[in-house]
Amino acid sequence: MRVLYFSPRICWPTISGAHLRDFYFAEYLARHAQITYVGLVNDDAHAQAQQLREKLGNGAEVIALRRDQSYKPANILRGLIGPTPLNVLNFSSAAVAAELERLLQERSFDVAQIESMHLIAYARLIRQIAPRTRLILDWHNIESEILARYAENDRNPLRGWYAKRTSSLSRDIENELLRLCDAHTVCSERERQALLARMSDARVEVVGNGVDCAFFSQAPADSPAREDVLFMGRMDYHANIDAALYFVREVWPLVRERRPELRLTIVGAQPPKSIVALREQRIVVTGTVDDVRPFYRSALVSVVPLRVGGGTRLKVLEAMAAGTPVISTALGAEGLATTHAKDLLIADSPESMANAIVSLRAESALWQELVANGRSLVREKYDWAVVGDVLWRLHGEQVEKGAACLGAK
Predict the structure, then answer these.
(1) Are residues 167 and 191 in the same domain?
(2) What residue numbers bound the domain in which 357 lies?
(3) Distance between the two ends of the chain, CA-based, in angstroms?
(4) How many CB atoms lie within 10 A of CB 389?
(5) Which CATH number do you get for residue 138?
(6) pLDDT tens for residues 81-124?
(7) Are residues 176 and 277 in the same domain?
(8) What pTM was computed for the model?
């Protein structure tokens, strides 16, 4: 099978949840098929592309295509007054389209997997130039839903209005993609039902986010005292920034008052000034780290106080695989097959989240139960090998359907 994997990014190094999903999907597909990975970049990414090629192995081809700069004034204006949302304009490039057209004319693909609705311009092009190629759209989340939630929570009326407009335009793009693509993958059953409510005959498969259980379960030589409250997540993502600032402002003072020995540690790439400034409050802000596992091992708990966003959180799965209990808002654990007080703790108010943290003691019966149940859950349902099998079966199904349609003609 020949697979074109088209992504808005070169997914190495794996510095975000989107990078991780892309990498493990591409790696799994490369074991079974001849894969050409095309990723969009802003700057020269030759080194990253070469590293990704080596990581994927199995003769995988990796092509980095430079796209236009994001948030150009012209695009912002077009997103404000035109029919195409800014989040799509940021990834639409005539130069990239020309390179993709050249690639499609040079070779054929059985399946093209498109990562996210932002790449609709290229999905249209593939359908036009290579109509026999089966199109699978991977929904990391439902973008219009995230933007609608952002609009509801943003205190700035102008930003809220712009997000609401972009949400509406994004929904139109998503609906077009539901018709354009042959199959769709989503992270949760909730998202599957949301898309089927729009188009009942769409082929939508739940292919959830995953975790490398073996990697995160490796035991260290020594175990440090678990005195950290850990916030993990890429810090240039607005939902993580909002969550971290909310936690520091509303929850952390309640925790410090009752458990002064605990330390808050925020781990994630590219923290903005608002997050870096938290160091002045004796909060650890690491920025990019080479290995997140030591931070999980020193954590009493991993907190996921998200108030906006979509999809499913790899940070929840990673913490569970690493043996760190999770305390999350209901939104933070949305889409995952978790049970409150069994696999994790759900807390939606500052007081309930603070109480959950304060009451949890390392190696207590509840702590150990959360660790054991969390690890069992991710091994059974969320290891990348389990998730990859579902994705591969969908690719095979689509190739068979394509052959059947061709034979019928």
Answers:
(1) yes
(2) 213-381
(3) 21
(4) 13
(5) 3.40.50.2000
(6) 899 999 999 999 999 999 999 999 999 999 999 999 999 999 99
(7) no
(8) 0.88
